[in-house]
Amino acid sequence: MGNLFKKEEAVLLLNKLSDVYDIYAPMVFKGEGCFSDTDSIRYGKITSFDDIVWDKKSDYSFKEVLLPISDTILYFTEKEMKVPDPSEKKRIIFLRSCDLHALKRLDEIYLTNGAEDFYYKRARENTKLILMGCKKSFDSCFCVSMGTNQADNYDAYIKMDKESVYLEPKDEELKTLLEGTESEEASFEIDYVTDNIEKVTIPETLPEGIQDFPLWEEYAGRCVGCGRCNFVCPTCTCFTMQDVFYQDNQKAGERRRVWSSCQVDGFTDMAGNISFRKDQGARMRFKVLHKVYDYKKRFGYHMCVGCGRCEDVCPEYISYLACIHKLGEIKDGGNADE
């Protein structure tokens, strides 16, 4: 059972939640799209339920709320270092089923793949997750094929129409906050996608020498190495470190963790002028096989969650879906059926 709020009561609900949490959800950023006079849908801090975009997929994922694109991890002087104070408020993130599955991948990398990441853990422990249902499949989504169209690792479920807001909490802290609010008891089924237009079948095993197959050669000339596919992906976790020195005191500054990409120049550079995966075909190969093969071999499930954002964002119209289809059609010798 959950709580059904009329629109005017929902305003009071949001105000009550906002006293404790910063609330993030997909919203429209006017004029901030990739092309002139286009908008972008990405995660931002909402002040009204009407800010939330329900009927379109966000161009960027929830990831930048938990893992900012540029995140200061310490301040330093010539004598001491200091970790930034945590945010004064906790946060709530509204996200869809595929992104909840992506969060599981982030947890795997930052919390169990070696030592725990202090900064990610701190952010994660102060975050509540509210599931947004999907009434229909969006373009390029293939979550059903990836088994990510349903999720249960959320703290509450939200459903909204023109007249009301339905909130069904599982988390005890959220249940306590809802006590005393003006609402009706109600129960709604969660909106889950049961079928996508796009479907993929990922081979359980790949032939020997897949890294040298002709399949990857076409991407060497097409991919421009912009890294957009990685930056919109909710499961990519690569970053680099940057030290920034203040102009008024060159012995003081801050160290920042900044998103990086396996597709951009310099990502694999090492001392001695050594660089691995120099051409874009090799980089595409690494990304794709990591998402749907290497990660599963290690952790038991695919890294890709089927959100299709990489499919949507590529300026060269390189299809990740088409590449996955080709993997399934690989024949001995490295050829795929036309």
TrEMBL record:
KW Iron-sulfur (keyword) present: yes
UniProt keyword annotation of Membrane present: no
Membrane-spanning intervals of the chain: none
Keywords: Iron, Iron-sulfur, Metal-binding
Domain 4Fe-4S ferredoxin-type stretches: 212-244, 295-324
Pfam families the record matches: Fer4_22
Name listed for the protein in its UniProt record: Anaerobic sulfite reductase subunit AsrA
Gene: asrA
